[in-house]
Amino acid sequence: MNASEAGPPADQGGELPAVAPQLRALRRRAGLTLEAAARAAGLSPAHLSRLETGHRQPSLPMLLALARIYGTTVSELLGETVPERDAIVRSADMEPTRAGGWTYFQAGASGRGMQALRVRAPYGSQGDIVRVHPGEEWLYVLKGRLRLRLGDAVHLLAPGDSAHFDSLTPHRLAAEDHDGVELLFVHTLLQSPTATMCLGPLTGELP
User: Of 62, 187, 77, whose CA–CA distance to 132 is shortest?
Assistant: First the structure.
C-alpha cells in the first residue's frame, strides 16, 4: 500500500460504517469495476475493497476523489439525505452574480453534476484570462459574437454556434463586438463556485 492509501482502520467489532455500503453501491451505479475505480482514484483494488467492506475508513481526500469519479457528492457517499431539488428554474429566480465584469445567472439547480449558467460578457473584460480546470465545458452563443481560443486555435462564434471541449485545454473567452456577448454555459465540475469555475490566472495578452 502506498502512503496515499493510509487511513484509519475501522472500529473492530462495531457496526459496518454507513459509508462502506454506499461506496460499493455508488461504484456499481456508476458502472465501474473495483479495479477501474481504484485506478482512477489512485488506490489499489485491495485498499478500495477494504473501504467498501468497512475495514478501513476513507480520508476526506479519498472521499472527494471518489465522489468526482462516481459523479456524486461527498454527502451522498456518507449516506446523508439530500433534500429534493426543484427541476425547474424560473427566470425571476435567477439571481445575478457579478465577477470580473461578467454577469452570471444560475440556470440550473446547485449541487448537481453539471453547472448551468447564462453569462453576459461585456467587450474588453476578462479577454486576457486563461482558464484551465477539470471537467467538460459546453457553451452556446445567444447574442453577439464570441472569440474563443482553445489551445493555439482561435475561433469566432456567432449566435447559434456552440463549442464543447475538455476544459483542461487552456481556453480564453472574449466578446468580439462592443455590444458584448451573451452565452449559455454548462460545465461538469461538481459544485464549483461560479467565480472559481469562470475565473483563472492572468497570463499574457489576448492573441
Answer: 187
